[in-house]
Amino acid sequence: MRNFVIHILVREESRFVANRIDNRLTRELEKKFSDRHVVFLAQRRIMRRPTRHTRQKQSRPRSRTLTAVHEKMLEDLVYPTEIVGRRTRVKVDGSKIVRVFLDTKDATSLEYKLDTFSSVYKKITGKDVVFEFPANAEML
């Protein structure tokens, strides 16, 4: 399945979410293109890690690190719902699979998009992620 990923500016994201433009726009675009899912992501910048030979005048802020950008991207990807848990499984061969647990109250509205979330995140970051809804609260 093909998906639409729409990048918005980070400084416009708060206005975009506060006015609930994203929910309406997502609904309208998915109605117009019935065979595709629409996802909004903020355009974030990753700065290089400083090395011995590249001295910078200012230290790199946490919001520009690879880890922070990927975490925020994960939150942006599943925006209407919240991430309630995360587990990283490292296999014997060294590959990692991250299991992300979403809030169960939005299970009916997001169940059909879980594969889309996984494929978009894999395409952008190169990391394998499985999105799930926890069976019970004790699992977290």
**Number of separate domains:** 1
Describe the largest sheet.
3 strands, mixed
Task: Name the helicity range.
Answer: 25-40%
In which order are the strands of the major sheet placed? 3-4-5
Low-confidence stretches: none
Q: Name the beta content range.
A: 15-25%
Give the count of helical stretches: 5
Class by alpha and beta content: alpha/beta
Query: Please, what is the average pLDDT?
Result: 85
**What would the principal axes of the Cα set say about the shape?**
globular
Whole-Å distance between the termini?
A: 31 Å
Integer-rounded radius of gyration: 17 Å
Query: What order do the SSEs take from the amino end to the carboxyl end, as H and E?
Result: EHHEHEEHHE
Work out the number of β strands: 5
Which short descriptors sum up this protein?
single chain; 140 residues; 24% strand
Describe the protein's architecture and organization:
The chain has 140 residues and is an alpha/beta fold. The longest helix is centred in the first third of the chain and has 12 residues, at 21-32. Helix content is 35%, strand content 24%. The chain is globular, with a radius of gyration of 17 Å. A hairpin with a 5-residue loop joins strand 3 and strand 4 (96-102). It has a 3-stranded mixed sheet. It has one domain. It has helices spanning 10-18, 21-32, 66-77, 107-110, 114-125; strands at 3-9, 37-43, 83-90, 96-102, 129-132. Helix 3 packs antiparallel against helix 5.
Short description:
With 140 residues, the protein is of the alpha/beta class.
Detail the topology: elements first, then pairings:
Layout: E1 3-9, H1 10-18, H2 21-32, E2 37-43, H3 66-77, E3 83-90, E4 96-102, H4 107-110, H5 114-125, E5 129-132
Helix pairs in contact: 3-5
